[in-house]
Amino acid sequence: MPGRVARLLAAGPAWARVAAFGLLAPLGERRPLVVQQAVVLAEPGVLLAVRGDVRGWELPGGNAHPGESDEDALRREVREETGLEVAVEARVGDYVRSGFRPHVARVWRCRPLGGSLRPSAETPRVEWFDPAALPDTLFPWYREPLADALARRAEPVLRRERLGLAAVWAGMRIDLRMRLSGDRAGRARARGRASE
Length: 196
Prior knowledge:
Order of helices and strands: HHEEEEHEEEHEHE
Radius of gyration: 16 Å
Largest sheet: 9 strands, mixed
CATH class: Alpha Beta
Oligomer: single chain
CATH topology: Nucleoside Triphosphate Pyrophosphohydrolase
Number of domains: 1
Helix content: 25-40%
């Protein structure tokens, strides 16, 4: 029980940091934030990671460093967050998101080349999931990019999404479920795991 209480108490500061990032950071930006995200597909399924701040399953990825290309940033972020080296196969599309933390999620389909699956400080859990049995604690805004990646479209898509109060509330509910379960909620059908 003390572990559950500590995990729940940690939600407050994490939510405060995410709220500041989502509401205040865009005010000082000259250009929209662009994040690179990977749909890593292999025989075990699709690779997902649990965020270290707001708990829930997501696609690995992150921001480019100054002067870094999109694909180089993607490969670096996947390696840092999961331990895997990946080959970038195709750009799935751009997901232009307004509302909470406006940004563009540039999503890429990838395959693993090497490395060893392991968690990181940013992603304390990484696991393979059957694409037909994704965890219900996957943040909902990742479902469409995953479906687009699995469809293997000939051209990248451009989708516009609004992350309003419903999305924020869904993220908070997922975070609470994950915290209460010690990050085990919604993952009964995982095919393999890197961390306990």
